[in-house]
Structures are given as C-alpha cells and as structure tokens.
Design brief:
By secondary structure, the chain is an all-beta fold. It has a domain of 44 residues. It has a 3-stranded antiparallel sheet, with no helix packed on it. InterPro entries: RNaseH-like_sf (IPR012337).
C-alpha cells in the first residue's frame, strides 16, 4: 500500500533540525512524528514527541482529525519525571 505521494514541485516545510536527530543532553531537542491507526469505528491520528538524547517518547496526542496542529499541545507524561 502506498500512503504518501509527494509532489516534487511542492514547497517543503521548514526543517530547523536539518536531519540531525541527536542532542548532547536531555530536553535539548524534541522531534515529532504522526501516524494514523484504523479502528473499528473510524481512523484515529496519533502524534508522538521524542527526546532525541534519550530516544524516549516524552509526549503524545490522539485526535479524530488528521489536522494535528494540536500536537504542539501534546500530553507530556515523561517530562514530569525528568528534571
């Protein structure tokens, strides 16, 4: 199954990380990714925020909408535990 068909002429999103997915200490750089999951009722969209130093999930959000602009408001379950 092919889920993404990119347009080579389309404008690209800003890439401040420049594909350098490493950090020298915890909580310096976080990256996010999103995916969709088919459920019995509908499609659910999930976004995860990862700390690049520890490579752990530091936050997540779930939505019934593919517009995950609220991913910036992810739930930070792990950040409470890291000081």
């Amino acid at each position: 199954m092919r889920t993404t068909v990119s347009d080579p002429d389309a404008a690209r999103a800003c890439n401040p990380v420049k594909r350098q997915f490493t950090a020298g200490a915890p909580n310096r750089l976080r990256v996010a990714d999103c995916t969709h999951v088919a459920s019995w009722a509908d499609t659910v969209y999930v976004a995860f925020a990862n700390d690049t130093f520890s490579r752990t999930i530091v936050g997540w959000t779930v939505s019934m909408s593919h517009r995950l602009h609220e991913a910036r408001n992810y739930r930070p379950p792990a950040t409470r535990n890291r000081r």
